[in-house]
Specification:
Strand content: under 5%
Order of helices and strands: HHH
Largest sheet: none
Structural class: mainly alpha
Shape: elongated
Length: about 120
């Protein structure tokens, strides 16, 4: 049986509290897809007051913390690097979608195809 480091297990539990806070802050807007509402105000409550993408911060920390809790620091490093590459792409797409959504409601819909990438 693999020993579990209690410190990292507590950190993981705290990250889950952070995830609940993120989801509660987004409310009905929570989704795993990149979906934006044109003209809708950006969410600025909860952790969104300080971070543009707080859920991705939590995911990045989880990907490091779980292997560390199991005593696997090399896995934590390798998967954190791989996750950073994926998140860089995802965050770029989200930022483009958010910029499109912030446009005037009467602006042309030419940029609405971000989901078709």
């Amino acid at each position: 049986m693999i020993p579990i480091d209690a410190f990292w297990l507590v950190i993981f539990a705290l990250l889950q509290v952070g995830r609940v806070w993120v989801i509660a802050s987004l409310g009905r807007r929570w989704t795993t897809r990149v979906i934006v509402l044109r003209g809708a105000p950006r969410v600025t409550r909860g952790p969104y007051r300080w971070f543009r993408h707080p859920n991705y911060l939590i995911v990045a920390l989880e990907i490091a913390v779980v292997p560390l809790a199991l005593g696997l620091p090399v896995f934590a490093l390798v998967f954190s690097i791989a996750n950073a590459a994926l998140l860089a792409y995802r965050i770029r797409i989200e930022n483009e979608a958010l910029a499109w959504a912030a446009q005037r409601p009467d602006a042309p819909l030419a940029s609405a195809t971000l989901a078709n990438r």
